[in-house]
Amino acid sequence: MDFPLIPSLPLNVTDQMGRRVAVPFPPQRIVSLVPSQTELLFDLGLGEKVVGATKFCIYPAEARTTATVIGGTKNFDFDKIAALKPDLIIGNKEENYQAGIEKLAAKYPVWLSDISNLTEALDMIRRVGFIVGAKEKAAALAGDVDASFAALETSAVAEAPISAAYFIWRKPYMVAATGTFIDDMLRRAGFANAFAPQARYPEINAGQLAAAAPQRILLSSEPYPFAAKHLAEFQQICPAAKIEIIDGELFSWYGSRLLKSAAYFSKLR
Which domains does the chain have, with CATH numbers? Predict the structure, then answer.
């Protein structure tokens, strides 16, 4: 059973940054600064309590109409947030910006996630469920995600990893490398990151891509909107590689959208 809704009961929690945050329990006015966490809140049945979201919070479709759009993930409209009088703000270390988070944390309870792999994503889902009063729903959701990935890894264990380069940007070329959530997703999907020796999101050039010689080149649909018109550009650099446009949300969103990721990875491989 989820926690009973007792208004304004204080709850002291620790976020994934190790920060102590005092949150009224259960929170009634939530601002979400991260698209994947906005979707999670709606899927946990908290849509009516999400009063603020970013312009990038595209799931569910009604998120940007039922909630006030408070800017982007890296440029908050502080006046709009103040007008919403939030009792909880949920953000993320990488997707948001430190100065903005610090300014908000001086006035409101701000809970931050810090995610670089599936284990941390599942931990986030459970913790968010706990602080918003949807503990059991979140635990069930996390369990379903965990089970889907366990099945995926079992099916891929006998196969040799496929060398892959995952592109997130063009001009300059940028790839996802070690220490990113995308890198963890690639590994679980049965791919070996062609740029694993590098960290985070390095810029690379055509010569480095040719030297890496990946078997697959994955062009993400976000944040750069790669499209079919870009395929020939990469094929010229790596003639032997299989090049395709892939759903970046299923590689980089670490909330409830993960329910769809394992099945997609299985087909992609």
Answer: 9-147 (3.40.50.1980), 162-268 (3.40.50.1980)
Q: What is the rounded CA–CA span in Å between residue 43 and residue 40? A: 5
CA atoms of 167 and 176, how far apart (whole Å):
6
d(CA 123, CA 14): 12
| Residue 54, φ and ψ in degrees, nearest 5 | -85, 170
Q: Which residue has the tokens 């006015």?
A: 29
Contacts of 78 (CB under 8 A, 6+ apart): 103, 104
Tokens (6 digits) for 240? 């032997």
* 189 to 94, 134, 219, 265: CA distances (angstroms): 23, 30, 16, 5
Gap between the Cα atoms of 32 and 149, Å rounded: 26
Non-local (6+) Cβ contacts of 228 within 8 A are: 245
Task: For 187-224, write each residue's pLDDT tens digit.
Answer: 999 999 999 989 999 999 999 999 999 999 999 999 99
CA distance 185 to 191: 9
